[in-house]
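Hi V.,

You were right to ask for the full record rather than a summary. Here it is.
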Amino acid sequence: MASYVELRGLVGYSPLRHKVQVAVMDVAVDIFAEDPPVAERVAWAKSALENPVSVAETLIHYVLIANKGSSVETIQAAGDAAIKTNVAAAVAATVAPAS
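Predicted structure:
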């Protein structure tokens, strides 16, 4: 289980930051394919594609806390699908759920 200090240290871990950035873009593209579209989610997706780095800077905190029961090594080794699942959950919790 990662400590708060270790989790805070992972905020600056570049490979994780890059994974979250790409997951933001991936989730945004998925949102554009939703039927019916939800206006709040489409607006978020547009913003996320315009500036995925900025959006990822916020969502990395959600990803880390969602995985606080894991070791630092496990978090660092998280696969693309796991990161995307965390980002999608963060969007559903903070923007609007898919219909």
